[in-house]
Amino acid sequence: MNLVLLDDAGAVHFPAGTPQAEHLLRVLKIAVGETFWCGVKNGARGLATVRAISPDGAVSFSVEWEKGIVFSPPPVRILVGLSRPQTMKKIFSAASEIGCARIDVFRSEKGDPAYAESSLWKSGDSTLAGILKKSAEQTCVPVLPDFRFFASLKDFIERENADTGTLRLALDVYANQKSLAETAFPPTAEVLLAIGSERGWSDAERAQLRAGGFTFAHLGERVLRVETAVSVALAVALSKTNAWDRAHRAILS
Q1: Each residue of 167-196: pLDDT tens digit?
Q2: DSSP β-bridge partners for residue 14
Q3: What ranges do the domains of the chain cover?
């Protein structure tokens, strides 16, 4: 954990036994006067200084917030076919760590329908939200992507049909199109990357993608696992959109 997420910018205390207090004391073995990075979800980041540690393990601190720095999601979203729960966890972790604005998941025609019955998608389950939170804490950037679930690819396209200003690219190793690296990205483009489930796209889904304004691209001749394709595609897209060209803000340890 390189950054501790706070509930709000006014927080100055971690009660004893909370995950934050336990991490600071048991893992970082932090002492009074030492510092750690903290941040507010989709908000500011700051350097916290420990002011007191109570005998029961509560931690009090103050924060000097960074000034003039605004963190924003990168201009890339992913649309991914529902896969097995362990795969989806890897996708959420990788996508959040590499950086994306939103993760949309749809039930694909070739996917196993039973995957939709996983507790990951049940109301009130916090597993995926917890993965996104941990990823933000790992990256030391307090920006978390949103995520949504759609009944089908058709459902997604119908609900997103008004989104005409986005470069839409569907990845398919079997489509005889340009590689993603060869694809021209308009300046300041918003990008939507569509990636099929573990068994790929059906012919009907390919037709839906074309009708929905998607063009096809590939990531080379290898058939990749879904989580690998997500990671590679995001890396290429972020590079092509110049998301990594902004002045780097050094993190002082």
Answers
A1: 999 999 887 678 999 998 887 779 999 999
A2: 59
A3: 4-65, 76-240
| 45-53 and 13-14 strand pairing | unpaired
Residues 6+ apart with CB under 8 A from 203: none
- Token code pair at residue 30: 């932090």
Q: How far apart are CA 237 and CA 248, in angstroms?
A: 18
Burial of 190 (0-12, 13-18, 19+ CB in 10 A): middle
Crossing angle of helices 226-240 and 85-98, rounded to 10°: 20
- Strands 45-53 and 35-40 come out as antiparallel
- Residues with Cβ within 8 Å of 37's Cβ and at least 6 positions away in sequence, in order, are 2, 3, 4, 45, 46, 47, 48, 140, 251
For residue 211, give the 3-state DSSP assignment. Answer: helix
- What's the pTM value of the predicted model, to 2 decimals? 0.89
Nearest to 92 by CA among 133, 132, 148: 132
- pLDDT for 38-88, tens place per residue? 999 888 999 999 999 999 999 999 999 998 777 888 999 999 999 999 999
CA–CA dist 109, 184 (Å, integer): 30
CATH code: domain 76-240 is 3.40.1280.10
Structure-block tokens of residue 80: 């991914």
Give residues with Cβ within 8 angstroms of 8, minimum separation 6.
Answer: 40
| Inter-residue contact 82 to 106 (CB < 8 Å) | yes
The CATH number of domain 4-65, selected from 3.40.710.10, 2.40.240.20, 3.40.50.2000, 3.30.470.20: 2.40.240.20
Residue 86 tokens read as 């362990």
Written as six digits, the tokens of 227 are: 């989580």
